[in-house]
Amino acid sequence: MLKHINEKPVNIEEEMRRAYMDYAMSVIIGRALPDVRDGLKPVHRRILFAMNDLNNMHNKPYKKSARVVGDVIGKYHPHGDTAVYDAIVRMAQDFSMRDPLVDGQGNFGSVDGDSAAAMRYTEIRMTKVAEEMLADIDKETIDFIPNYDNTMVEPTVLPGKVPNLLINGSSGIAVGMATNIPPHNMGEIIKGTIKLIDNPEIEVKELFKYIKGPDFPTAGIICGRSGIDSAYRTGRGTVKMRGRWKVEEEKGGKDSIIVTELPYQVNKARLIEKIAELVRDKKIDGITDLRDESDKKGMRIVITLRKGETPEIIMNQLYKHTQMQDTFGIILLAIVDSRPMVMDIKTILAYFIQHRVNIIRRRTEFDLRKAEERIHLLNGFKIALDNIDQVIKIVKESESPAKAQEELMSALSLDSLQAKAILEMKLQRLTALERNKIFDEIKELAQKIARFQEILGSDQEKLDIIKGELVEVNDKYATPRKTEIVDAEESEINIEDLITEEDMVVTISHKGYIKRTATAVYRSQKRGGTGSKGMTVVEDDFGESIIVASTHDFLLMFSNIGKIHWVKVYEIPQSGRSTRGKTIASVLNLGVGEVINAILPVKEFKEDQFVIMATELGTVKKTSLNAFNSPRKGGIIAINLVEDDKLIAVQRTDGESNILLGTKDGKSILFNEKDVREMGRAARGVRGINLKKGDYLVGMEVIEKGSQILTVTENGYGKRTKISGYRIQKRGGSGIINIKVSERNGKVVAICAVQDEDEIMLVTSDGTLIRTGVKGISLIGRNTQGVRLIDTRQGRKVIDVALVAEEDDDEE
Asked: Can you list the alpha helix ranges (DSSP code H) found in 322-344?
C-alpha cells in the first residue's frame, strides 16, 4: 500500500498535549479573559471597533443590532452570531454594567431573567463612555494585527482613556482558571489612579481611602470589609451582599417588608419563586402575601407578614434560605503581556497607567510628526511668498508642472513636497490676510512642536496629561456610589436583635458545666435562709462560679492559663434552676486542662477603658479593653503567667480607679491603678501584693465612690466594711487586715464592692444558691469575723459570690 509522501510518525501523547495547550491558550488569550489595559475581552473590543467603523456614535442614529453583529462576525470575530449578540446585550444592560458601553433601544432583558429581543428588533449605538475607550485610535496609538482571514486589520487593545477593567468588571471561565472582577465606582477608581500617579510607592491599604470597594449597578449592601481587603491585597476574596429592605405598616396593623434592591446578579423572578416555595413548604412561617410591584420607577417586592410577626426574624430566615444574601467571589485575573496573572488592585492600576503613558507617547509622536510635516510645507509657502515674483516667473516660463517643480526646487532650495504644494497653492493665498494666516500658523505650530517635544522628553509631563484626562472623564461621567458598605457587625441581623434584654445568672460548675438562668427564677430571701437549689450536681462536682449579666453582653471569659475567650450571654444554653447545664466545651473552644476562672461582662469595647487582671500569686496587669475586641477561635493570650500561677480575677476600669486585692488569709491592699502601667496582651504584669507563704489572692475589686467591701468566708460568714477603713498604699506591699480568719468563719473565699441597694448571690459547693440584700449584712470594721450569711451545715462550703444586677421585689 502506498504511503502519503508527507506522512511521518507522531507520538499521540505529545500531540494531544500540544493540541490541548494550543486550545487552552487560545481560550485564555483569545476568548475568556480581559486585557488588563482596556479591560475588554476580544469580542467586546471587536464590537466597539466595528461600531466605530460604522460611525455608530452616541450622537448618531441607532443602528440595527443585526447590522453590527454582521459586521463583527464578518470582519473580526469568526464565531457564532449568538455569542456576539449576547455580549452586546450585556454591554447594554444597566443592571449588569456599572457604566454601560452600549446604548440600547428596545428589549435588552431584565433583572427577572427575561431574554433580550432578537437582534433584528433591537437597535444600538455607543455610549459616551465607550467613545472614550476609542479616543485617539486614529493617531497610531495602538498596534493593529491582521483579522482572521488577513483581509483587514483589528486592534490588539483599545486606547482606553477610562480604567474599564475595574469600573465595569469582568467574568469568564477559561481553561484551568477563571476571572471574576466586580464593577466599581468610576469616581473612586479615578481618584485611586490619580493618587497612585502622585505616589507610586503608595501601599494598597492607603488606596482603601479612595477605593472603598465594589459598586454594583443593582446597588444593595456589602456586609463587612475583610473580603474587600483580601481581594485588593491578594487578588482573591469573597464579599457578602444583601438586598436592601424597609418595613411599611399596612391596614389592620400588619407589617410588610419592602425589598427595593437586590444583590448583584440575583434573578428577581427566581428569588420570588424561592420565597413562595419556602412559604408553601412551611420552612418560613409568618408570610401571608407576596407580590412584585416593580415598575419603571424602581424595584418593589412586597412581602406581607402575619399580624404580630417580627420583620427582622423573617428577614433572617430569608437571608439564610434565599439569595437575599449572596456572595461574590472576587478573582482579579487578567491578561498581562499575553499571560494570565492574578493581581492586587494597585498592580492593576499601575498597568493601566503604564498603558496610558504609552498611548500619550505614541499620540504625541503622531501629532509631532504631523505638525512638523505641516510647518515644513508652510515654510515652503513662506519662501514662495518672500520670492513671489520669481515664483510667478518660473511658473509662467515652465513648459510643464514637472519642469516648474524642478525649477522651484533648484531656485529656492525647496524639496519636492514644498515645491508641489506651492504649485497647488491657490492665488487667494497671496492676499495680505492669507499671508498673515500662514505666518500665524507657522508661529502656532512652532509652539505646538515645542510642547510635543517637551512631553516626549518628560515622563512627568505624560503623567500630568493622564491626570488631567482622568479628571475630565470623572467630571463628565462619574456618578455617586450605589452600593453601601457596612461593617460586618452592623450588617448582621442575628439572634441578639431578636432576644429581649434581661439579666441572667451564668453558672459554671467545677467539672465544666455551664448554663444561664433568669435572675427572676431565684426567690429573694432573708439573711440566714437555707437557700434554693441553683444547680443539680453529680458526685464530686459542685458549682464553682456565677456571674450576673445581660443577655446582650459579651462575656470575656478568662481561663486559668491566662487566655481569653469570647461569648455572648444569649449563646450560653439556657436551663432551669435545678439543671446541670451543658459542658463548657460545647460553648467555648478550650484547650486541654484549661478552665474558666474569671468572667467579665462587656457591652462594648472602648479605647478609654482598661482591663485589670490579678493572679493567684499576687500579680496585677492593666491592658486596654480595646485590645480584646477581636474574637478568635481558640481564644488569645490575655496575660503571660509564671509557672504554678493562674488568673483569678478580672475587672474593667477607667484608668483612674482604686484597686483592692483580698487574700485567702484575710489580708488586703488598696492602691491606685496609676501605679500599674498599661501593658500589651502578652506581658506578665507587676506585683500587686506581697504574699506570705501559703497565702494566695482570692479576689480583686475596682472601688467606686461610697463603696463598701463585702467579705465572705467559706463557712458562710461575711461582713461589710466602709472603704474609708482601708488606706491607700503603694502596690507591692504586704497590705493590712481585711477580716479576721478563724476556725469558726474559715478562710476568705471572695471580696465584693457593694452599695446598700445591692443584692448578692452566693453559691455553695453542693450547688445551693441564695439571694439576699446586702443592706441586711452587718456594717462593721476590718478587724472582725463577720456574721452568718448562709447556713453551711451538712459540710457544704461557700465557694463564690456575685452581685445581682437588679432587685427582685418578690420576697419570701
From this structure: none
How far CA 298 is from CA of 88, 97, 98, 218, 221, in Å, comes to 24, 17, 17, 11, 17
Rounding to the nearest 10 degrees, give the CA dihedral for residues 779, 782, 784, 788: 40
> Residue 570 domain-assigned?
yes
What residues are annotated to the active site? 121
Spatial distance between the Cα atoms of 537 and 579, rounded to a whole number of angstroms: 8
Task: Examine the domain organization and report whether 772 and 627 are in the same domain.
Answer: yes
CA distance linking residue 177 with residue 362, whole number of Å: 34
CA dist 549 and 561 (Å) reads: 24
Phi, psi of 74 (to 5 degrees): -80, -30
Do 466 and 507 share a domain, yes or no? no
Residue whose C-alpha cell is 476609542 = 134
Three-state SS string over 432-474 comes to: HHHHHHHHHHHHHHHHHHHHHHHHHCCHHHHHHHHHHHHHHHH
pLDDT in tens, 262-276: 999 999 999 999 999
Find the farthest-apart pair of alpha carbons in the chain and give their distance in angstroms, rounded: 143
Distance separating the N- and C-terminal Cα atoms of the chain: 114
**Residue 662 CB contacts under 8 Å (≥ 6 apart), including other chains:** 668, 697, 698, 699, 700, 701, 709, 711, 738, 748, 750, 751
Which of the residue ranges 99-113, 480-494, 600-614 has the most confident prediction, judged by mean pLDDT?
A: 99-113
The DSSP 8-state label assigned to residue 519 in this structure reads: G
| Closest by CA position to 155, among listed 48, 259, 261 | 48
Contact 508, 517 (CB under 8 A): no
Residue 340 inside a domain? The answer is: no
Q: Give how many domains the chain has, as a whole number.
A: 4
Buried b (16+ CB within 10 A) or exposed e, 736-763: bebbebeeebbbbbbbbbbeeebbbbbb
Q: Whole domain around residue 40: which residue ranges?
A: 33-160
Task: Write out pLDDT tens, residues 382-427.
Answer: 888 888 888 888 888 888 888 888 888 888 888 888 888 888 888 7
Query: Is 223 inside a domain boundary?
Result: no
Spatial CB neighbours of 36, under 8 Å, sequence gap ≥ 6: 165, 334, 335, 336, 341, 343, 348, 351, 352, 355
Distance of alpha carbon 584 from alpha carbon 716, whole angstroms: 28
CA dihedral 154, 155, 161, 162 (to 10 degrees): 80
Enter the DSSP assignment of 261: E
Domain with 374 in it: what CATH number? 1.10.268.10
Rounded mean pLDDT, 666-681? 91
Tell me if 332 is assigned to some domain: no
Could you tell me the CATH number of the domain that includes residue 75? 3.90.199.10
Instruction: Mark whether 667 and 542 lie in a shared domain.
Output: yes
